[in-house]
Queue: 3 jobs
Job 1
Amino acid sequence: MTAVSTPGVESAPYTVEEVCEQFDPVMGLEVHVELNTETKMFCGCANAFGAEPNTHVCPVCLGLPGSLPRLNGTAVESAIKIGLALNCQVRERSGFARKNYFYPDMPKNFQISQYEDPIVFDGYLDVPLDDGTTWRVEIERAHMEEDTGKSLHVGGATGRIHGADYSLLDYNRSGVPLIEIVTKPIIGAGVRAPEVARAYVTALRDVLRGLGVSDVRMDQGSMRCDANVSLMPKGATEFGTRTETKNVNSLRSVERAVRYEMGRHAGVLLSGGTIRQETRHFDEQSGTTSPGRPKETFADYRFFPEPDLPPLEPSRDWVETLRAALPERPWERRARIQTDWGLSDEELRDLVNADALDLVADTVDAGAPPEAARSWWVSYLSQQANAAGVALTGLAITPAQLARVIALVEEGTLTNKLARQVVDGVLAGEGEPDDVVTGRGLAVVSDESALAAAVDEALAAQPAVAEKIRAGKTKAAGAIVGAVMKATRGQADAARVQELVLERCQ
Amino acid sequence: MSEASAATGGQSELISLDAGELARRIHAREVSSVEVTRAHLERIEAVDGPGGVHAFLHVDAEGALAAAEAVDRAVAEGGPVSPLAGVPVAVKDNMTTTDMPTTCASAILDGWRPPYDATVVARLRAAGLIPLGKTNLDEFAMGSSTENSAFGTTRNPWDLARIPGGSGGGSSAAVAAGEAPLALGSDTGGSIRQPGAVTGTVGVKPTYGTVSRYGLVAFSSSLDQIGPCARSVLDAALLHEVIGGHDPRDQTSVDGPLPPVVEAALAGARGDLAGVRVGIVTQFSGEGYQPGVLAAFTDAVRVLGELGADVVEVSCPSFSYALPAYYLIAPSEASSNLARFDAMRYGLRVGDDGSQSTDEVMSQTREKGFGAEVKRRIMIGTHALSAGSYDALYGKALKARTLIVRDFTAAFETCDVLVSPTTPTTAFPIGERTDDPLAMYLADLCTIPSNLAGNAALSVPCGLAADDQLPVGMQIMAPALADDRAYRVAAAYETARASASDAGPRIPELRALEGSR
Ligand SMILES: [Zn+2]
């Protein structure tokens, strides 16, 4: 029976600044990441989010009697890549164990996990903080394990198994490969602890996204964070009792949950109470945590080596091949790009926020100048994407195609205005940029005599305007330029037309 | 044909023939697979009913006859057929079958129909063998007598008042009684070999990893091994080659060629064992061994010597740790393997009336659904793996296992094969050891070391014990992946014995049963 807690009542929250006047916070962060392998960890079922319940299942991931696990090599590869990106050592021989406990969404009533024998261990991640400095978070280990199914508890007040009228089980997620990345205790962050926690999870997300091993969507549960927090009196060396906060489902929540727990711990400790070691649930709405069901007994998972799987012995050559192919760390790449392209901090931030960094980089790689590439993606193409209601990456134009359009502008074949029409044609599926130029007849009129004739025609049609220009009112030339542009359906170089108009009226 | 055999209590000549001979006749169209299948179904009908052998938990006559017809058509069309195509086979009821229930002789799985075939079953079907039905066993293969079955004890065809061994008593009894020429068993601590010995049949535990475990309901994953039961060494070899070989679905399966066991059985039958070094394991004799068993075994060893083998004695002192180590490792793995039987997805569900919590339904189902021996082992295993006992119990057992492997390695440096009685006594009376688990466990004393070490071992009949006229088995052990050596020695011995004057009947007459009719 779980009482519904009243948010904020159990302790008057202290601000982190107040907390840190008397205490040093210690954090440990456990991040679960679902790998985006095509198939599950131990069977051939699709690893896909959002399908009809119990449609991606087979005897193995349902744990039917007689079935046996078969390890997915891509999952192992992803685990090693993650370890290498986190500066970890790769164990020459590791293995799987069974973690035994009963729960209905776990079909074998044990989870196959590397808990005690992780494939990678002992690393660190240098995490960029908001003020431009970095914080080194040390990594204890990263290990592979299989995910459980999902329970939906219907009825009852809490949405948890106790008190529910009945429960529905979906095993689509059962056997999805997970990596759990565990930090060493993070000590000394003081008032920055909540920020460090968020920055770490953010940096980790970016690294994993760069590796392409996971969707890292906290909102969909493909990345989940448990935050362990404890306080010790300032200057002490022995850690206080910690609580583990679960259900932290966004980057912002990581920061809020740590901040709330620090304040709550301080409240309890300063009023002479003691912290109970427990699991707590974060409530997104109120920004508070509430206790989980207290464990009646000490959980003994009775780990023992998984007899159905041989030990894991990745060859040194394989590991080195993976190491050599590691991508640049996202923030290092961003720093390099900022320098190379000469971007201000704000311009870089806009690029990142618009999710356009990769697209611009690819356009630059295809030969376009950075400034033009950036401008196209963050302005005109962003507008088109917004109008179409798709992500920038969902637009039907590739960086290479855009680079070709930009090249056509540079060589004078297209004006910017024409270039937008070419881009529209590509987006409309009319083919490559050159096909659109031909198909729509969009090349700039660069035949001088044809252009001169058009200017003469326009001057003759508007003698009053021509007279003004001849009288020195050069601003009046605009009307003639406009007429010429109209006559050439916009395919003339307006600057050249302006020159011609002035020449003729001298 | 069918009327004639029914009139003689199912005693068609066909039920006493070897599988190899049946296959030859079927492929030569001297007899149809349907006739052979029907003869065995009639035999089952005649001897397996109430008061009878009770080897089968489920018989699929319709499915078997349909499969037999398909083989007959293939033979008639002159297409190539596998060496055992058309021959009936019985399957221990802990291997999954899509067309028959799979119960593991447990109330918790009563009526469960798996959605997939075990790899071995799929291989039987692909090779044209005819699955007749599913055979009885000790619940979840835990036991040495089939008395732990939730669906009644199987009786030994040689004496229906006695046990047929276990856990695979159903498979061995079916073969001994002529209900099937071949059967599949699974051997975790002796569950193929010990029933083979006490029913006078051949039982083989192949090298661990050479026959896929995919679809075998796990008892102890690091020990379980599927293998053949037959009435002759060659038949066992023929079936062994049908089911054996790498299976990508089982990551503990050996990725390499299977030892040439049929070739070895044929070579052995020529009777020459010159230069073969045979080691008698000295630990397996003395107190607790029935004199009639030791006498039959000693005589068998004498025959090996006469065939040219060099017989020596070897000591494997660590084998004395085998039984206690086994009774920690196997229950530990079992406690985890059997956790999945929780009423949530399949099988029995007790207490699901809406008033009980999930935990209560799980717990009541397991309380009702598991028998006493299964619960005992789950509790032993749970304790052995628990935080306070792991090192002293499970951890120590793993160390003993390493020592046993070393003893085998050393022994196989000086010997090609090792021999011992398969089990210390002949078949004991039903009920004699049910209240004494330790006495029951002793039945597997000689067979357990090969499960712990993973090497090949088989049991071959060596006549009847002089003191009770019941079958005795000789165990022949060979190094891992040298199963062929054991087959060669067994076949040589079998051939020599067949020509001896006291060879005795190959199928018991089921006197007690017929007397009761
Ligand atoms: Zn699956």
Job 2
Amino acid sequence: MNKIQITIIVILLAALLAFPQFITSESVLNLAVYVLLYVSIASSWNVLGGFAGQTNLGHAAFFGVGALVTRMLWFAGWNIFASMVIGALVAVVLALIIGVPAFRLRGVYFAIGTLALSQILLITVGNTFSTISSIPTEDLKVYSLVPRYYMFLGVALLTIVTAYVLLNSRFGLGITAVREEEDAAESLGVSALKYKMLAFGISAFFGGLTGGAFAFYHVGYYPQLTFGPEWTFDSMMMAYIGGVGTIVGPVIGAVFFVVLREFLALRFAEFHLIIFGVLFILVVLFLPDGFMGIWEKIRKRLLRRSK
Amino acid sequence: MPLLKIEGLCKSFGGLKAVNDVSFDVAEGEIVGLIGPNGSGKTTLLNLLTGFLKPDAGLITFQGQNITGYARSNICPTGIARTFQLVKPFLGFTALQNVMVGRVFGRESTQDLKRAAEESKASLERVGLVDKANMLAKDLTLMQRKRLELARALAAKPQLLLLDELMAGLNVSEADEVCNLILNIRDSKITILIIEHIVKAITTLSDRVVVLNMGTKIAEGAPMEIIHNPQVIDVYLGRARA
Ligand SMILES: Nc1ncnc2c1ncn2[C@@H]1O[C@H](COP(=O)(O)OP(=O)(O)OP(=O)(O)O)[C@@H](O)[C@H]1O
Ligand SMILES: [Mg+2]
């Protein structure tokens, strides 16, 4: 990272930390919470979907498991941080259990397999926990948005920093090599299965942690909500629109997605789904590197011109 | 003790015996040529040696260690690196990143990416690609990709290098360059098993030649013996000349 990038990051961080001190509007704060939530879940999806190139269509399962376990433990009187970490670890265990058979499936079959898993969980949870899960009244009296905002900020930063460190490490070189050309990577000593499992575990951990933050944030919802396929597909679309496999891509994608959704939903109700669907298809077809790809192209042009 | 010992190696695909009871040794410091008509089992043999295929029978011993049936990702760390007949670069990586994978995960695996990058540059230098270090592999020509594949394998610091038709698809002067490169690699104490169709390249490079036909070893010996062997002329050289 160069000086300009570090300066931008420091300013952004300061602004994000100070944000609730200046903004008191609940709707703006809620919007910020959703931006941070999507930054986290899209970045966590990206660790497997982007770095490893394994299109996971069941990410909602990990978000949902994280939320479910966190909610149960927290309501049972556990500390919220401990509850979230355990929720995330349960998501990791789930990923490692299904990882071995799932990675035998390649390409589209891996995608279908993971989608099937999350749909099975969606139905099972819907049948098992059929009543609404609400924060108890005595806790609701002291409910405040600001600590929720900071919780999501913490999860988002942790996810991004971890993803950054991973991508620039030996692990990052190995897992992206597996994505680019698995045979060659293995012939040079990279164990594809081991690295995919690691990526899957890390992806599930942060997906689960984001789910935990959601459980801490949301006042009342059916547990099934957190297992819905939209969590997966939204994450994937954000990662692709911003730039799959990069660190900044899912962040930009998430901001763009939430802001545009807010803007469109105010006017056209569910219309944003169609817009995003079409946008996603266009990006996959014509801009495989997303917004980050456009930015790279512009930057290269400018560099060439300044020479 | 030979560096590599192959004993009674067999591999069938359905009813087809792609490699049939093949045995030979490779001594340290040698260049051994492996030749044979199309479909005679050369690549299959190489895949058996590198864990890409599991043998039905037979024994592979490398440096006295039984490596038969090793997982393919465990072969390179023990000191055997390979190239692919159809090159398999990491297309979205730069040339340097391609080579770094070999350096970081190969025989002297390391966490130190900075040092790995420096040493990978040296590998690129060796194959004459250092000025392309920051180019993406997908923007390289076939000749450059072949060199890249070689640099990547070298960066893994192998004791044994397996080359599968590195010269195929190159013109005469390019092939000559690759020949010199291979001799240069042997001089750095790396043993080489080379599959090649160009007879001139095999005879000038190899200390010894093994000939396969329909999965079976039909001859083994010095290059001059091999090109005058009637059976070899019959199944391979004769056809190649015709
Ligand atoms: N994975 C596979 N499944 C089924 N048959 C295979 C497989 N790999 C190779 N074969 C068959 O085994 C035989 C030997 O193939 P191999 O690729 O080893 O030949 P080769 O000597 O390398 O030929 P070439 O000079 O054309 O590269 C061929 O008949 C081929 O069709
Ligand atoms: Mg072959």
Job 3
Amino acid sequence: MSDTEPRASETTPNNPPTPPKKSDPIEQRDFANPTINIIQSASRKASTSDLSSISRESTPPPLPPRPKNLGLLDSRPSTSHSTAPARPQLVSKATTQLSYSDTNTYNNETQSDSHSSGASRPKNYFGLNFGSRNTSDVEDYASMRSFAPTEVGIGDAESMIGELGGDREKSLLRSLGHRFEDQESESMFPPDPQFEEAFKHEFDDIPDMEADGSNEESVMLQWRGKLKHFLILSSAGKPIYSRHGDDQLITNYIGVVQTIISFYQSANDTLRGFTAGDVRFVVISKGPLNLVAITRLPESESQLRTQLDALYMQILSTLTLPSMERMFATRANYDLRRPLQGTETLLSALADGFTRGSPSTLLSALECLKLRKSHRHIINNTLLKTRSENLLYGLIVASGKLVSVVRPKKHSLHPGDLHLIFNMLFEAGSVKAGGGENWIPLCLPGFNNTGYLYMYVSFLNLEHPTKQMQERPQSRSGDGDEVAILLISANKEGFFEMQSMRNMLVEQLQINGSIALIRDAVKKGRPRCTDIVPGTPLRHFLYKSRGNVQFVMPGFEPAFADSIERRRLMNLYGKLHVQLHGKPTSLKIHHETSTTYISLAWTTPLFELYCVAPGTTSRAALAQAANKVIQWVRMEEERVFIIGGAVF
Amino acid sequence: MADLGAPAQPKPSSSVKLVLLGEAAVGKSSLVMRFVNNDFQENKEPTIGAAFLTQKCNLPTRTIKFEIWDTAGQERFASLAPMYYRNAQAALVVYDITKPSSLTKAQHWVAELQRQASPGIVIALVGNKFDLASPSGGEGVDDVDAAPAAEGETNEDEESIDARRVPTKTAKAYADEESLLFFETSAKTGMNVAEVFTAIANAIPETSLKGPRGVGGQTNLGRQEDARVNLTGGRTEGPKEGCAC
Ligand SMILES: Nc1nc2c(ncn2[C@@H]2O[C@H](COP(=O)(O)OP(=O)(O)O)[C@@H](O)[C@H]2O)c(=O)[nH]1
Ligand SMILES: [Mg+2]
């Protein structure tokens, strides 16, 4: 999908200019005036698709050069599986909903070898015979022109080309429908080498600048090549945190950002964000801090705000609000990096989670380990039974998925707080790598941002639960089987009390068989779509239960096994999410379609559902599949969600 | 994992509470990881809060179970430190031989321990990252060559093999003055790591030893003292004797 639409416009000299609908000015207006969103959303809805799959025309095709006079040819992907970094927004424009579903239905029927008459191009189109391919392209072009709906024809020539490109891709796809069906693991998104390349290096460290400045240029280039930056600075302009680059490197940028922020502030205006070229800036000011996100990923302002909020919460979690304010009260240009020392890894783990794409953050919801209701009930009761006097919250967590919680009646757990804890335990290596048991002072800002709680953490060795786990898998690869017991107390001297509760708890869980059940559930992992609904065309979905503030999803495998595919899936979810949540009007149902996928976002007072299927799927089939997921969740509700939990 | 050579008849065992203190990034967690897991990790992430680990150490006549608090060295945790050293019988105060400021910090910790910890606490001063010193420089106590390097900041950008900035004799002199055990170690190569713990085990006054179960807060002295160990030679070089590492 479209990853970084704006980028395309930057580097695409020989492509048709972006059609008005997608142009940057509109993006800018999004920031300037939220009401624009209404219009945009509405029009997007009407037009089926979206800002979603913008092509990366910019991408130079690695294969033989092709005629430059047809911009659309350049956008042709070189690999066979992906049909084209099409410009779906154009597709949608050209195509009415009706024609869309027609096409789709048709595709479904022709999944076998026979292909549609509409697909007049030779079947061996993807045979990589470029000579003939070009010829056929031209033919396509010509034949497609006549297909173009007249109303679109009125538009300017360039958008016309875009239309054609889109339609053409669509019919190409049609002819290849079976391929997509068969090859589950093939990309759901058009290839985008430039994005892939950037993403591959996104998490690489930037080397230090040499003292003599000899590598300055390459360092700067790497810095600018990052898809995403997070900067945190004090309102006095002192750098506090940057995801990429050392101080020396970011000083200039901090200066610029600071200047811009104070410019707005002096005008009694608060800068919220802006778009410059292909880059989106979002700033939030929180007391003495300014937090900045700079992204080339397709993320909305509000999504970026949520991310910045989480970083802010992480800082509060380290310092507490009053103590941070005290630090700045004594000296406005206080260097906050000192008291934050050692937590950069937590901030970076959060930041990288956002850059990789985090369903939990997107939905502001938690994921639970799927267990039978009666099994979870036993675990809950065991927690209650072994609960120690000074326990505030007790949690059992399997690699970021909640297994069970025990909590006081009057305190619920804030998902943002849990996210910080899960980030610390399962994403950042600090606690994991240390070994042994841990006693961690932390502030849970959602619970109370003024004081510390103390968290006892012990990772379980599921095979030998009573043994202390001394060594844990260091890499994230082992993350499926990390189960941690977290016991949170307000008593800072409570370590040994919590430790003995842990020992009792684990002993009981072992006796009553719960450890084995947890181990099995963890080993099983997330189900595949096809385990959930046999034969479903869905490749992935997110279902959020609004009432429980929890979500459930299938595994990313096989369709989104690698991190790039996953990121693209999250890009798509992000866009769908915007459609449902764009203020002030929100849609109830939104479709988003490209040549390679069709997706759906659906919200009701009870749930939000986002799902994606190959482009060959008809709307009707997609809707049916979505309904099946909802039925499944309804049936499994008390297994996939923790309802109520153990309360004392 | 520790009891490899355990005799049929269990030796008397006692537990020793030990706390690691020192500036962030000097290698406290790495020393513990070497001692407990015999493992080392480059670019280890900083400790958050404190970690509690246990490891047994087999001495000829008894088994010592270390209950180790590995604290985070960051400033903001400083106020929590007393909680960890309050009942400790031993402390490992660690500095980084490539970073003079970390020795200063270590000296502060030693002073604080001498003021606030239990009077009998055994303190070992440990200069870590020995592997970063050049083979010629600083191995001996009278290490003349290392001294100039200690002052020179110019070394930093050179392809210098010797990153040592704290001469052995400086630290050793200070340790002697304060009656501390003293070792230079490398968590990376494992050099002297077991020795530090063994030396501590041998240096714990027997009156402060207690059963392995006395994990609680109270200092509950001298419970099972049958197994007397000759502690007079406390600071033995004790190379790996029995220590399970
Ligand atoms: N070369 C070298 N590096 C070490 C040694 N011990 C620790 N380190 C490194 O120093 C850094 C800080 O170590 P760590 O154990 O986290 O220090 P702590 O903050 O005192 O616990 C890590 O990157 C370690 O890999 C050592 O003996 N030699
Ligand atoms: Mg540490």
